[in-house]
Amino acid sequence: MKAVVQRVSEASVTIEGEIVSQIKNGLLILVGIEAEDNFEDIQWLTKKIATLRIFNDDKGIMNNSLLDVNGDVIVVSQFTLQASTKKGNRPSYLKAAKPEISIPLYEQFILQIEQVLGKKVGTGKFGADMKVSLLNDGPVTLIIDSKNRV
After folding, report:
1. What is the three-state SS of the chain?
2. What is the pLDDT at residue 150?
3. Which of 61, 104, 113, 115 is the most buried (most CB within 10 A)?
4. pLDDT digits (tens, 9 = 90+) for 92-104
């Protein structure tokens, strides 16, 4: 499971002209799921994201986590994170999980991050044509792969 984690001052997801999620201070998380991913990947990744010290403290140093600042979250499924660009010019998405695998894992990811944070998070809509808008704060952007834990 791969995640692009972006610290934002604001972010939103729009589908068919309607804003479906909107936050201020927090994280926009893009999640890419592969067929081998499981609940262990979700548990590890959600805990890692919630406790990353990427928010500034009162001295302007990145010492605070999402939990520390009570930040908000939007989670968006993005299969293109599993793209391979190794060969040719057309990305291959063979590693991306099919919907019958990725939808339940995406939904579990959302439930798990809500449980870790103790509050609801915003989402996109799986498979929809979404317009994601953000004001990246810092900019701070991290790429985390649950398969690279060591």
Report:
1. CEEEEEEEEEEEEEECCEEEEEECCEEEEEEECECCCCHHHHHHHHHHHHHCCCEECCCCCEEECHHHHCCEEEEEECHHHHCECCCCCCCECCCECCHHHHHHHHHHHHHHHHHHHCCCCEECCCCCCEEEEEEEEEEEEEEEECCCCC
2. 72
3. 113
4. 999 999 999 999 9
